[in-house]
Amino acid sequence: MGSAATLLHDVTVLCEQTRQEWRLPAAEIAGGLIFVEIPGFEHVPASTYTITAKDGGERTRRFISVTVDWPRSTGMRVAFR
User: Fold this and answer.
1) CA–CA separation, 18 vs 5, rounded Å?
2) Is 46 helix (H, G, I), strand (E, B) or coil?
3) How far apart are the first and last CA of the chain?
């Protein structure tokens, strides 16, 4: 995956429009995108998301109003930008 700064854990993805929430064990930041494996992810068109997670130094990181990057998403691996 990458260095400790690019790995995240205790991840929460929240759809800002529907308030649907997914809690996941891990995510990765790579190439300016946040990659999260989300089983059963159902995207609502024109939605934005808030992603909250802890980094390798146990600091809370928050990414507000991110959107799905469909061309870079594959299967359950969803890319956000």
Assistant:
1) 30
2) coil
3) 18
Q: Count Cβ atoms within 10 A of the Cβ of residue 8 and give its class: 0-12 exposed, 13-18 middle, 19 or more buried.
A: buried
* Beta-carbon contacts of residue 62 (< 8 Å; ≥ 6 apart): 50, 51, 52
pLDDT tens digits for 3-18? 544 899 999 999 999 9
Chain centroid to CA 39: 12
Q: Which residues contact 40 (CB under 8 A, 6 or more apart)?
A: none
Residue with tokens 């998301």: 49
Measured CA to CA, the distance from residue 53 to residue 59 in angstroms comes to: 8
Answer yes or no: pTM beyond 0.85.
yes
pLDDT cut 70: percent of the chain above it: 94
Cβ atoms of 39 and 48 within 8 Å: the answer is: no
